[in-house]
Amino acid sequence: MNQTIEYISPDDLHFDYRNPRIAEFHPTAYTPEKEIIKILWNVMGVEEIVLSIKASGFFTNEPLIVIREDDKNVVLEGNRRLAAVKCIIDPTIADFIGFNKNLVTISPEFRDTLNALPVIFVNDRKDAWKFIGFKHINGPAKWGSYAKAQYVSQIKNEFDIPLEAIASQIGDTHKTVQKLYQGLQVIEQAENLGVFDRTDIQANRLYFSHLYTGLTYEGFRNYIGINGVPFDQAAPVPANKKEELEELLTWIYGSKKKDVAAAVQSQNPDIRRLEAVLQNTEAIHALRDGVPLYQAYEISRPKEETFEQSLLEAKRALQKAHSYQTEGFDGQNESFLRHAASIAKLADELYVAMESKYVAFKDRGKKKRLFEDD
After folding, report:
1. What's the pLDDT score for residue 368?
2. d(Cα 234, Cα 251) in Å, to the nearest integer?
3. What tens digit of pLDDT does each residue of 304-334 get?
4. H-run or E-run covering 149
5. 73 phi and psi angles, rounded to 5 deg
6. 92 with 19, same domain?
7. 327 and 239, same structural domain?
8. Residue 204: which domain range?
């Protein structure tokens, strides 16, 4: 990589819409600069960079890494710093909720020091990948799983760099990088097949960790047929699992076009619940019919396990009610007494039914007296 430092006006430097750290917000080459600044400010901690620059100036020994693409100077490394400088120089560029213009108030003399920023030009993106990976992915401002997956995918698919080499460079285990890569390949394959659209999900951002975590479980992998598929395969899902792939991503992320809410509302416990459902035919059909995930999960569980948990939950609820009865029941509210009577009746009926089964089971092994004419 060329180490010659040049100085370029911030006006002539442009954000990299392919930056893995903002990929989950779906920027394109046509996304306005203001919108990218808003994303960086709200999600990537640009405010901290502003304070640092105001306190110490722009560190010339940390130049931006820039490539010439489509007749533009695109910043591959240093987008947060570029956003901070642009906001300081022209606060009107950040007219969105949450931006404090007083934060970027500076003297004209200080503003003049930011009129040209140090940059190093690279010939292509491959020339810069090792530097960016080593310095940033596991640096002070750690990247999320989706940003890492985007980065790994770009390097693997565009430059044919082995996953093991990428893992070594960014400081993650080979196994982690394999799973990140495969998770994103599943999403991209679904998009290429026309069964998923990242912009169609119900949430305002794609929670990649839901899928990334789910694909570490056997139930998910078997459902879309990727158990045993090499982790570095670009399109891992078999052709005969297209419908299952669409279902899985819809259950995880929902769909605005289909007016389907995501079955997974939080990673814990919903991803584990969904895994259990994916391994039970009756529960899968229930989920397909629109039954909430927690109910489909109950269907998937062994009946004995569900029965025991119900008994224990009822016991705990009654113990709690009993602890409050001294102050919670003054003897005047008859409806409370009726509730207790209904509970007692149900408990008696349940106990009688269970006792009958228990006695019958115990007696099953006993020999009955036999008669000659039997």
Report:
1. 58
2. 23
3. 988 999 999 999 999 999 999 999 999 999 9
4. helix 145-159
5. -90, 100
6. yes
7. no
8. 170-262
